[in-house]
Amino acid sequence: MIPTLLRRLRDISRLLYVRVLLIALLAIVAIGLAKIFGRLIPPGLEGLVGADTVDQLLRIIADSMLAVTTFSLGVMAATHRAVSSTWTPRAHQILLQDTTTHTVLATFVGAYLYALLAIILRDTEVFRAQELVVLFGVTCFVLVLIIVAIIRWISHLEVLGSLIETASRVEDQTAIAFDMRCEHAALGCHPLQEAPPEDTHAVRAGDTGFVQQIFQDVLQDAAETAEAKVWLMIPVGRFVHRGEVLARVSREDEALEEAVHRNISIGSLRNFTQDPHFGLLCLSEIGQRALSPGVNDPGTAIDITGRIARILMRRDKPMDPGEVLHDRIWVPPLDRAALITDTLEPLARDGAGQVEVGLALRRSLKALQSHPDPVIAETAAAVATRALDRAKVALTHPHDLERLTAL
After folding, report:
1. Closest CA to 53 of 146, 143, 151, 145
2. Which pTM does this prediction carry?
């Protein structure tokens, strides 16, 4: 599990404006480098780099980057709308975390701001004589960043928003979260398997939304400071209403209650960090959309069935709570049964009348019945039985039903 500080730094680094500001700050860095290294440049060398050359490069960057940025933003917005309407609105969140798109856009916007700042600094004569050589060097570095960004952007546009790329990104993010929850089903805390003691104090949610993630290491420190214990009543991914009991603590402590609110993230959207159930739901929704009469794409549903099964089959041993790293916190463990009933069963319902989809589901569910985790194995068997019952009602040709029952 990633510590809270690293998780928050990673979330900040994914913000587009942060990357833009980092590149734009190169203009300020250029001033510092110019003042430090400008005096070290031998006399006469500044004649190789004229002021007109530097000014022309800066104007080219400023003029071209504004147009490229506008075009790129239009492409990104159109892709997000297409993915939301074609596959699933929840996949939009994956695109928002696309580091390649963020880096490219940040490079374009940051280079534009760099050029503007550098032009202003040139007009105010901040750079003199040999210092122009340093500004020229930094500008060439920015040009290299722009060229690399354009090449990456062209390559990325080939797959941006496509089904394969979108489903693969959702699968990758889900697999990471699933692996983590397999090792730490209760996020490194005690699994909450029974009700907390009756004399505990309720901490109520201050917002309405989804429990996105828990910063359990910081919460553990707060509990140790207060010499208390914390029972989280709402699992990650569950919707919570304002005023609902979010957690219970063994003693009433204002600082501890504030820590609970601060370190249990509640937002309007679920995310993939600690919630593999959300990722599997996104994949299932793509398959369900493909099975709708307006789309009628059973091949996509078959592909999604395989992706869901591939994620669930990554585990080669029964799931357990794992090592308790935070002994003062109790967390609801991962609901393994819901990973199948909420994802594969809707596909079985919507694809009951298509034998190709039914065959793919039967094969995946048959494989999951041999899963080392008994909960997943038993749930897969139950879903397989219900799927066959639905197929018997929906399939009209005896041959199709024989193919299913043969499995």
Report:
1. 143
2. 0.81
